[in-house]
């Protein structure tokens, strides 16, 4: 069982590239969390633990090249190692979809990254789909529908 | 702003003035900015009308090339209010100098931090020419909290090794190093203006294109094409259709 509170993708330059909130929080609270987590996570060294206590909850993060994937989790419900696997599965899926994903791919195709994430995690932060193949199939179907829609628009 | 009204970005690159400067200039301008010495005068202080291209966008920029004898003095000048206008128009700064791990390290860090704090939303790269500092030490320096002095403003200096002594292509985090990392930082910086280039959209592996549907749509498109009387309009329609089909079939 997972109940992720939020998923953030922060670059080494401190820029937030993706953010998905699975709990309702006021905007100023979200900004505060992002600001604090950015400085905490970016300053952590390679051999430090990937799990950090943060306020009333825990944060699990993993660095892939110049991108930090950060998840806020519910302490009583979530498993930290499972959260690391969720992050890894998200990265693997994006990697297959984009073909060696990089920061620029995410900046210019952020909606695709959100589509993949939405397929993996439900709106309450629980895991909806763990199969990479299934997720890619869904995203591919959405892409085909989108292209069909473009064609219909041109033909109409 | 250019004559045609488009925004022109500016990057400042500063070298320490020493006997290695000609080599440093040639390799940095060549490797990072892809400026061939045969086509570009590397002695110019302002190289205008350059284009930065990625698979997603193209943007025009000017390169300001500067040199300094004393980094501290140069830094203080750039931080001063006299240079507010210059800093305002810059997309980022690259400094090429030797990083010192000795007693004056704190001052150098402090200077880098001060400069970073006035460069809001702009990239800031320090290219270290000191061969004695290994990639692992550079990674540690970058991870070090003291180097993230400006994280509040969403900006921090990134130290990158000029020399690739170990011949590695990636660091321990699988992150690009050296010139390729500088290019990656510039790729993802916040430019003004620019335009997206036609890209092949990323797509999951798939070979199951519904050919029947493609042919039906082609037929439909041909009928519509024949109905259009105006020749220009017909050509435009044909072009749009061919682009859409090309994208659909990829």
UniProtKB/TrEMBL annotation, chain A:
Broad class of the protein's primary localization: membrane
BP terms from Gene Ontology: Golgi to vacuole transport; intracellular protein transport; vesicle targeting, trans-Golgi to endosome
Superkingdom, taxonomy of origin: Eukaryota
Keywords for this protein: Cytoplasmic vesicle, Golgi apparatus, Membrane, Protein transport, Transport
InterPro entries: AP1_sigma, AP_complex_ssu, AP_mu_sigma_su, Clathrin_sm-chain_CS, Longin-like_dom_sf
PANTHER family, sorted: ADAPTOR COMPLEXES SMALL SUBUNIT FAMILY
Protein name from the UniProt record: AP complex subunit sigma
Protein's organism: Vanderwaltozyma polyspora (strain ATCC 22028 / DSM 70294 / BCRC 21397 / CBS 2163 / NBRC 10782 / NRRL Y-8283 / UCD 57-17)
């Amino acid at each position: 069982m997972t109940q992720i509170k939020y998923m953030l993708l922060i670059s080494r330059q401190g820029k937030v590239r993706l953010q998905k909130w699975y709990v309702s929080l006021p905007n100023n609270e979200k900004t505060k969390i992002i600001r604090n987590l950015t400085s905490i996570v970016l300053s952590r060294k390679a051999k430090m633990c990937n799990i950090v206590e943060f306020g009333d909850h825990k944060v699990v993060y993993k660095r892939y090249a110049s991108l930090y994937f950060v998840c806020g989790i519910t302490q009583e419900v979530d498993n930290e190692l499972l959260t690391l696997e969720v992050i890894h599965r998200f990265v693997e899926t994006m990697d297959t979809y984009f073909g060696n994903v990089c920061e620029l791919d995410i900046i210019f195709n952020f909606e695709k990254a959100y589509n993949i994430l939405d397929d993996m995690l439900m709106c309450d932060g629980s895991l909806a789909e763990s199969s990479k193949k299934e997720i890619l199939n869904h995203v591919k179907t959405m892409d085909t529908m989108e292209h069909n829609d473009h064609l219909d628009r041109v033909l109409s | 702003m250019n004559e045609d009204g488009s925004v022109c970005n500016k990057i400042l690159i500063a070298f320490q003035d020493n006997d290695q400067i000609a080599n440093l200039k040639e390799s940095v301008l060549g490797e990072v900015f892809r400026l061939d010495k045969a086509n570009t005068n590397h002695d110019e202080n302002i190289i205008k009308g350059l284009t930065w291209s990625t698979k997603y966008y193209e943007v025009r920029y000017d390169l300001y090339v500067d040199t300094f004898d004393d980094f501290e003095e140069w830094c203080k000048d750039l931080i001063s209010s006299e240079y507010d206008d210059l800093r305002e128009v810059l997309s980022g700064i690259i400094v090429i100098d030797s990083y010192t791990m000795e007693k004056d390290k704190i001052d150098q860090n402090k200077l880098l931090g001060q400069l970073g704090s006035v460069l809001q939303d702009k990239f800031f790269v320090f290219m270290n020419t000191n061969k004695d500092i290994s990639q692992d030490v550079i990674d540690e320096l970058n991870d070090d909290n003291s180097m993230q002095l400006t994280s509040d403003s969403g900006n921090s200096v990134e130290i990158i090794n000029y020399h690739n002594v170990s011949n590695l292509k990636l660091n321990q985090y699988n992150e690009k190093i050296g010139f390729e990392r500088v290019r990656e930082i510039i790729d993802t910086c916040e430019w003004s203006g620019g335009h997206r280039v036609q890209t092949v959209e990323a797509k999951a592996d798939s070979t199951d294109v519904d050919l029947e549907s493609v042919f039906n749509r082609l037929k439909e498109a041909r009928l519509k094409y024949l109905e259009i009387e105006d020749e220009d309009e017909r050509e435009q329609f044909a072009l749009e259709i061919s682009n859409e089909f090309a994208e659909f079939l990829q």
